[in-house]
Amino acid sequence: MKILVTGGAGYIGSHAVEILMNSGHEVTVLDDCSTGHADSLPPTARFVQGSLLDSDLVMRALKGCEAVMHFAGKSLVGESVEKPDLYRKVNVAGTKVLLGEMNTAGIKKIVFSSSAATYGQPDSSPVSESAHCAPTNPYGETKLAIERELSTAALTQGVAAVSLRYFNVAGALETNRGWLSERHDPETHLIPNALRATSESPLRIFGRDWNTPDGTCIRDYVHIIDLIDAHVRALKFLEASTHHVFNIGSGTGYSVAQVVAAVSRVKSSPLATIDAPRRAGDPAVLVANIDKAEMILNWRPERTLDQMVEDTFKAI
Q: Which positions fall inside the NAD-dependent epimerase/dehydratase domain (predicted)?
């Protein structure tokens, strides 16, 4: 299949490009490289550099494609609070341009990289797809707005759409060019930050008195290879004139203390940490219910927390 991967030069998108091409698909990448890196792409991938907001460029990128995997967009929660208009413009308006050009080109298949940020702070955990969505930041609001655009496109344009909501992604993939890795600036993810912690710059643990088995917060993590497998399965599942939403995650979650222990095992040395007060608004447990993905997509994660940490460590 010929697939356009938007945001294909980013962390998650570049893994999708690699795995799709290794599976025999033809891939075009559209990325403005504002946060992505063109050197992460296979040399045989067709690369179009530019913005989703440029309709002519989007049409050129879509030429010859049969489906879209949509990863492009701004994705930092803190930045979204500071620049909400930028997030609405790039994420929501950009997706509207993409859907409009897909319609013109007669392309009806799209898998969207959504986020559990659409839920906000759910009343219970594990959280299912039927839970009420009340995002607590502009980033989550834009992801939910895009999902609504996809529902409209399914009804009015016959689009076959799937949105995958996931929490935290970790790990890396080794290619014949080396390891694909997280190259975020700033880096906000726990596992790479834990791996880089030192005695001079220890990892902060925000609260050890949560109502959890070990007193630290529990969050959901999924290995990036398992995540892309879910995208590939979603692509095969797509149904005309429908928009389906699936949670993608571990289904059980891992505590901060478990992540610390895994990092210590992988590095064969104790991780330097420092206790800090709880952060306002942090829930004790936030984990995805993945029953729907297991039942309909026949998907479950295969890789463990140790594998996520080990692969991240090798890629750093």
A: 3-249
Q: pLDDT category, 85, cuts 50, 70, 90?
A: very high
How does the average pLDDT of the chain come out, rounded?
Answer: 96
3-state secondary structure 241-292: CEEEEEEECCCCCEEHHHHHHHHHHHHCCCCCEEEECCCCCCCCEECECCHH
Determine how many CB atoms are found less than 10 A away from the CB of residue 274.
10
What's 53's DSSP letter? T
Residue 166 appears among annotated catalytic residues:
no
Structure tokens at 128: 């299912």
Mean pLDDT of 5-9: 98
Full set of structural domains in the chain with CATH: 2-170+222-248 (3.40.50.720), 173-220+251-315 (3.90.25.10)
**Closest to 247 measured CA to CA, from 136, 97, 147:** 147
CA angle, residues 13, 15, 19, in degrees to nearest 5: 120
- Confidence (pTM): 0.96
Contacts of residue 57, Cβ cutoff 8 Å, sequence gap at least 6: 30, 48, 50, 51
| pLDDT of 185 over the 80 cut | no
Q: What's residue 187's pLDDT?
A: 80
Question: Among residues 139, 166, 221, 254, which one is catalytic?
Answer: 139
Question: Which two three-digit tokens encode residue 200?
Answer: 């001079």
Nearest to 265 by CA among 195, 207, 210: 195
Residues 110-120 have pLDDT tens digits of 999 999 999 99
Distance CA 309, CA 81 (A): 30
Strand partners, 169: 222
For tokens 């030069």, name the residue: 9
Q: How many CA atoms lie within 13 A of 130 on its CB side?
A: 2
Quote the pLDDT of residue 150: 98
How far does CA 124 lie from the centroid of its chain?
22
Contact, 39 vs 75, CB < 8 A? no
Q: Does 47 score more than 80 pLDDT?
A: yes
